[in-house]
Write a structure and sequence with these properties.
The chain is α+β, with helices and mostly antiparallel strands and about 250 residues long. Helices cover about 20% and strands about 45% of the residues.
Length: about 250
């Protein structure tokens, strides 16, 4: 009887260790994929966004600075009508500076899920308010092939204490280069809200990255937003003081 009891305990411990190991592996994979795109310490990038609707298109260009998960800044450089408008995130606070009306606005948390500049990309996405590493639990739910690349299929569910936009996220991350090639974003009722598809993989500042991301709403036919990375530099020294309200007014 004692031997049988020991065997049961041993099997239970083995299963528990395997589950914990899988959890650590999933989190490690998500962390590597996230750092591949944001940089281990910081990043500076220039991007172009095309907002596509059934009857019209609109292009916005912007420059972005980020440091860790707490500090980020975005400056619109095109078109002329919005040029100079800037956004700042410092930890849990977000601000918007609009030079045309000389106005500084603190954005409430309720605006996290709203589309940035009328696009399908949310304020939360652009300003990195939510951390896919820190604010979610991670679980490997399988492997699939995306664009001829084997990928981990990882499910992200919100931590109880996290104020996040999504009820669930599923990411497809390549097993070789840790590239996020596809993402599905669900609401609290487990209904698909949007899909992201990444492509045009290139060498950017010494690392292989997708440089084009299509953000496609689930329930809006003929509508999507396309993000293109024009240039990106990683782990550039940026002082915390750069991310200030005063500097937000003077970005160039």
């Amino acid at each position: 009887m004692k031997i049988k009891r020991y065997l049961i305990i041993l099997v239970s411990l083995t299963i528990l260790i395997q589950k914990l190991g899988a959890q650590e592996d999933a989190t490690s994979i998500v962390k590597k994929a996230n750092e591949k795109f944001t940089g281990e310490k910081s990043s500076i990038s220039t991007m172009t966004m095309e907002i596509i609707r059934p009857t019209w298109k609109r292009t916005i260009s912007f420059k972005s600075w980020s440091k860790g998960s707490d500090l980020s800044m975005v400056l619109i450089t095109y078109p002329a009508k919005e040029k100079g408008q800037a956004f700042l995130k410092r930890r849990t606070e977000m601000w918007n500076w609009t030079p045309s009306i000389n106005r500084m606005i603190k954005l409430p948390p309720s605006m996290l899920s709203q589309g940035w500049m009328g696009s399908d990309v949310t304020n939360d996405d652009l300003l990195n308010q939510t951390s896919i590493v820190e604010d979610y639990y991670h679980k490997i739910v399988g492997k699939e092939v995306i664009e001829n690349k084997e990928c981990y299929k990882i499910e992200l569910t919100p931590r109880e204490e996290s104020a996040v936009v999504w009820g669930k996220v599923i990411l497809w991350i390549s097993t070789k280069d840790y590239l996020i090639l596809k993402g599905e974003y669900y609401d609290e009722d487990n209904k698909l809200v949007r899909t992201e598809i990444a492509g045009e993989i290139k060498n950017m500042d010494g690392r292989i990255l997708p440089t084009k991301i299509e953000v496609i709403p689930a329930d809006k036919t003929g509508q999507k937003t396309v993000l293109v990375i024009n240039e990106i530099k990683f782990n550039v020294p940026i002082d915390d003081a750069f991310f200030s309200l005063q500097n937000l007014r003077n970005l160039k």
